[in-house]
């Protein structure tokens, strides 16, 4: 192969003005992030039982680099909220979210976490997106382990393709401000 046969790859859309080093660094960081996510399971009901099956040999979430469940918010990247969240528990979920370091992602698992489920009562929060921003929703009552793994793979894609500068954009800061998060 001669030098005339080598072609340079074109820059992905939206990053034409950035240098080769910055885009390559973004891709490298994204790949490293996506394959080493540490989830924090916040399970309150039956969806947590379905999530436990993803750790078993048949589904094996460790194939995706996430065999280390973090039960400390300061050491987690992905908050997996599963099950019914009461309005009394909403500040706790928000506090856990705020204790996580950036970048952080949220996976809402099950009908109750996504929309309140069948519990349209005064005490149940009608979706965790009322207190924290959610990146991926996994519907179902309860969702199958395959669905939870699919949602987790979508979080991996977000982590892989997210620019290292996205979290400092005015749009992202406005999103957090809409939730009362500084």
From TrEMBL:
Location (main, coarse): membrane
PROSITE patterns assigned: COMPLEX1_20K
Enzyme nomenclature, EC number: 7.1.1.-
InterPro entries the record matches: NADH_UbQ_OxRdtase-like_20kDa, NADH_UQ_OxRdtase_20Kd_su
Topology in the lipid bilayer: Peripheral membrane protein
NADH:ubiquinone oxidoreductase-like 20kDa subunit domain residues: 46-154
Span of the signal peptide: none
Enzyme category, top tier: translocase
Cofactors, names only: [4Fe-4S] cluster
Superkingdom field: Bacteria
Molecular function in Gene Ontology: 4 iron, 4 sulfur cluster binding; iron ion binding; NADH dehydrogenase (quinone) (non-electrogenic) activity; NADH dehydrogenase (ubiquinone) activity; quinone binding
Alphabetical list of Pfam families matching this protein: Oxidored_q6
Cofactor binding note: Binds 1 [4Fe-4S] cluster.
Subcellular location: Cell membrane
Transmembrane segments: none
Catalytic activity of the protein: a quinone + NADH + 5 H(+)(in) = a quinol + NAD(+) + 4 H(+)(out)
Keywords: 4Fe-4S, Cell membrane, Iron, Iron-sulfur, Membrane, Metal-binding, NAD, Quinone, Translocase, Transport
GO terms (BP aspect): aerobic respiration; electron transport coupled proton transport
GO cellular component, one term: respiratory chain complex I
Amino-acid positions noted as binding [4Fe-4S] cluster in the UniProt annotation, renumbered to this chain: 46-47, 112, 141
Family per similarity comment: Belongs to the complex I 20 kDa subunit family.
Subunit structure: NDH-1 is composed of 14 different subunits. Subunits NuoB, C, D, E, F, and G constitute the peripheral sector of the complex.
Purpose of the protein: NDH-1 shuttles electrons from NADH, via FMN and iron-sulfur (Fe-S) centers, to quinones in the respiratory chain. The immediate electron acceptor for the enzyme in this species is believed to be a menaquinone. Couples the redox reaction to proton translocation (for every two electrons transferred, four hydrogen ions are translocated across the cytoplasmic membrane), and thus conserves the redox energy in a proton gradient.
Protein name: NADH-quinone oxidoreductase subunit B
Encoding gene (name): nuoB
């Amino acid at each position: 192969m001669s030098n005339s046969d080598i072609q340079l790859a074109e820059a992905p859309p939206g990053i034409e003005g950035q240098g080769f080093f910055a885009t390559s660094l973004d891709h490298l960081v994204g790949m490293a992030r996506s394959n080493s996510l540490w989830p924090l399971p916040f399970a309150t009901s039956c969806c947590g039982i379905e999530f436990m099956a993803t750790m078993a040999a048949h589904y094996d979430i460790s194939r995706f680099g996430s065999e280390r469940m973090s039960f400390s918010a300061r050491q987690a990247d992905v908050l997996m909220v599963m099950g019914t969240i009461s309005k009394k528990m909403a500040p706790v979920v928000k506090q856990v979210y705020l204790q996580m370091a950036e970048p952080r992602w949220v996976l809402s698992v099950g009908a109750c976490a996504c929309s309140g489920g069948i519990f349209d009562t005064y005490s149940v929060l009608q979706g965790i997106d009322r207190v924290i921003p959610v990146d991926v929703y996994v519907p179902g009552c309860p969702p199958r382990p395959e669905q939870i793994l699919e949602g987790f793979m979508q979080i991996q894609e977000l982590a892989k393709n997210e620019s290292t500068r996205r979290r400092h954009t005015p749009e992202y800061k406005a999103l957090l401000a809409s939730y009362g998060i500084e």
